[in-house]
Each structure stands twice: as C-alpha cells, then as structure tokens.
Amino acid sequence: MDERDSLALLERLSLAAGAPGGEDAVRAVVREALAGVGSVAYDRLGSLICSVRGSAERPRVVLDSHLDEVAFMVQSVSEDGALRIVPLGSFWGHVLLGQRIDVLTERGRVPGVIGSTPPHFLDPAERERVIKPEAMFIDVGASDRAGALATGVRVGDLALPHAEFTPLAVPGVVSGKALDNRVGVALMCEALTALARREHPNTVVGVGAVQEELGARGAGTASAIAEPDVALVLECTPADDMPARGARQAALGGGPQIRWLDPTAVSNRRLVRFVESVAADLAIPIQMAVRSSGGTDAQTIHRFREGVPTVVIGVPARYIHSHVALIQMNDYRAASRLVIELVAHMHAERVASFTRFDEP
Fold first, then answer.
1. How confident is the model at residue 304, as a pLDDT?
2. CA torsion sign, 322 to 176 to 215 to 343?
C-alpha cells in the first residue's frame, strides 16, 4: 500500500470499536481489507484467520495481531444515574478522569464522560491520590437511574475511549486511540496483501485474535486453526522515549522493536538473530528490547502443542492504553517491509533450524 492507503486503513481500524469480546466492528474492517486475498476462517471466540498459500503448504508462518483494545463494561447503574464500570485491560488512573467515553448500546452509541471531582472539592491528600479505574464512573448526563436507563444503557454494555485520528504537526506522527493493536492488525493486512502477489516458500496465516487484553485468549484458540510452525507477533509496543525515562529501547523514529523477553514469553533466540540479519540486509533500523513488564499474544502462541518459535515485532507508540497514542509512520513502514521480507525468506529448512536443538 502507499502511504495514503496505509493511513486510511489505520484510521478506520483506530476509530472502530473493539472492546474485548466485542470486536465485531474491527473484524468487519479486516474482513473487507482482506477480501479476495486468502481463505478466511474463524475460531469460536471470534478470532479471524486468513491463509495465503505460497509454493508450499508448510511451514505455516503465522502473523499474529489482536483486534481488541482496552475498554470498560458497565457493571451497574446507580440511583444517581452514574454507570459503574469494570476495566477490560489495564488503564492508569491518571489518563482517564474527565475523558470522553462512548457507551455501546443496542440503540447505538451513547456519549458520556468519566466523572472527575473539581479541585475546589478536594483536600490536599485527595489531590495527591491516584484513583483506580475500578472506582470511576461514567456520566451520560442523567440525574437518576431512570434517566440513565432511558438512554438505552444496560448492564453488560461496553464502553470505549472517544478519540480522533489526527496527524500531528511533526511529519509522519499520527495520534489515535487503540493503536495498540490496530497497528499490528494493519501490518498483518498489508503483509498478507503483498504476499498474495509474490512468491513465498510457505503458507502465511494472518490472525486477528480476540481478547488479548484479557490474557491473550484468542491467540490460543486461533492457533488450533492456524497451526503455526513459526510466529511473528505484530504489536504496538510502548515507547519509552518520554522525558525523564531511563535507557531507551523503543523510541519513535528508531524503527521496529524486536522483543527478547517480557514476563509472558522468551523469544526464540535463533529467530531473533534471523530477524536481525534480514533487517541488516535491508538497512532497516531496529531496536532490541528486554522488558520486565507487559505481555503479548506470544504468551499463548509459543506454548501451542509442542511449542512454536516466536518473536514479537512492535511499532513503538507513546501513551498506549489511553485516548491519544502516538506513532511515527516511518516506523510503521519499516515494520511492514521487514515482516514481508521475513516471510519471503521462511522456507522449510530455515524454520526447522530454529528448533534444531541437537546442534550447537
């Protein structure tokens, strides 16, 4: 895709609603983007699996991404009209108070805000405290329970950040909600589209997994259909190039991040070195990371059956799990090129070498 097409796809994906367990709108965008590209199947949780056969049935190279985003579910409607909520995924309280929210009801979207107490009513100790998301509420403008219910809101409805998709003044930087992981979804779609038009010595399988933010659930069930021999997990990884941070392993403009480790998965070392070598041959800058927190779909994919050599390739983004994540499109394009070339070089002998443990 050219830059305009990539931006258009990212915008559609970013603005689509995709709470864990409610990924329908995102799945529809992906289905349209992949129309005519390959054969499409679904697991019973709702993950989408698209296969594009090259010159061989195996190895099966999985390009995993997750459709869902951090969100909320309405737990109850109070007598004063406030919607009590449960977070679906991890938010930091500081990024939420006073922000706009869309509640998805059977009658359509209901706009609201996350209520915040004005500083006039806070004592010094309260001003220093971070409120947990579980203690927050959504205000849809009602003054009592009947007024809130009259909007169509019900217990179990999903609620998501309301945001725009906006190019910033710095060339190539765009901002939007849910770039974690609509960036990975877009990369998967672009790679499958490109590989459907060229030779590759394998079958490439794109996965749009559900419920990653609740423990990588869809990636596990999708693997039963995708049957990966090797997996590239395409992510939008948290950038650490904000002021006052320490050593940087994911900076905007520094290229895709290759993750060695997080608490949920250790990348296959031979696969990481292969990614490094292909990136070097293509003169694509990459950033290497060892993470002490976080996790991805790699946690379930790498444990599928007897094990799957897996690596995480991420586009750095500032401020993920908020309304206003930022990415640099140069990083996105570099990741797209890298992923396509990696798959093009994944022949059977190479994939077998990642798990040939009887050799030094």
1. 97
2. negative
